[in-house]
Design a protein that fits this description.
The chain has 240 residues and is mainly alpha-helical. The chain is 60% helix and 4% strand. The strands form 2 sheets. Strands 1-2 form a two-stranded antiparallel ribbon. It has a two-stranded antiparallel ribbon with strand order 3-4. Strand 1 and strand 2 form a beta hairpin.
Length: 240
């Protein structure tokens, strides 16, 4: 249900070519199947509410992921054009460095949220693995609470930082300086969301189908990551 993917169909021959964009149909089918995705069989009223909330957040998060891909593509294009212009045309794009840096800041904050969702943040587990299971459980919950607090700091102070710097302008583009920090509160919101679902065991109410399926084996990104983690032990040996 990759509803954000466009399928372009071109008509050849002497007739005027046209483009059929199936994204509209995919969006219609997606929203048509949304009630069944939210109200799954066996859910009580409270579970349906929780499922509805996670559905909204997962939809917005999917848009954020697609936006992050676009941002990375734009960074590559801008930097490539700048290098080509400087080395070949001997002319520089005045705003290229400023825009590329701004987009890199956006990517960094989005990556924070993705790291929390995929549990890809750096962790030293040498001593953690020596503790009893109950102690490990307590430590993991404390770690999740610390993550929620970090997300709150990004959200609260990110909004304040955007407000404080919005009146200033960037030198090359003349854009508001606050645009560089717009992704800071957005990352904070999703860090809190992912940490809360982990803290209260609500991951089962998330909608992984919104994440889309990979072409190989119909697996989601999260499933591939979990398989890679499990593959660290191959043939009884630890793969470091």
């Amino acid at each position: 249900m990759d509803f954000l993917t466009d399928i372009l169909v071109y008509q050849s021959g002497f007739e005027k070519g046209f483009i059929m964009v199936s994204i509209v149909e995919k969006i219609k089918n997606f929203f048509a199947s949304a009630p069944a995705e939210i109200c799954k069989p066996g859910y009580n009223a409270l579970e349906k509410i929780v499922s509805g909330i996670t559905f909204v957040f997962d939809c917005i998060y999917r848009v954020l992921l697609e936006f992050a891909k676009l941002v990375i593509l734009v960074i590559v294009i801008i930097v490539s054009c700048q290098v080509f212009g400087r080395l070949v045309l001997h002319k520089s794009i005045m705003w290229s460095e400023e825009v590329a840096l701004l987009l890199m800041v956006w990517t960094a904050f989005i990556a924070m949220a993705i790291g929390v969702e995929k549990e890809l943040h750096i962790a030293i587990t040498l001593f953690f693995a020596m503790f009893p299971k109950k102690v490990q459980f307590v430590i993991s919950k404390v770690n999740t609470l610390a993550t929620i607090f970090f997300g709150y700091i990004l959200l609260f102070y990110g909004i304040k930082l955007v407000k404080m710097t919005w009146a200033s302008t960037l030198p090359a583009t003349q854009w508001p300086a606050g645009t560089a920090y717009c992704m800071m509160p957005v990352a904070g919101i999703f860090i809190i969301y992912f940490a809360l679902t982990d803290l209260f065991g609500l991951k089962k109410y998330r909608h992984s189908i919104i994440e889309g399926e990979e072409a190989s084996g119909g697996k989601t990104d999260q499933q591939i990551i979990e398989e890679m983690r499990a593959g660290n032990t191959i043939g009884g040996e630890t793969n470091v």
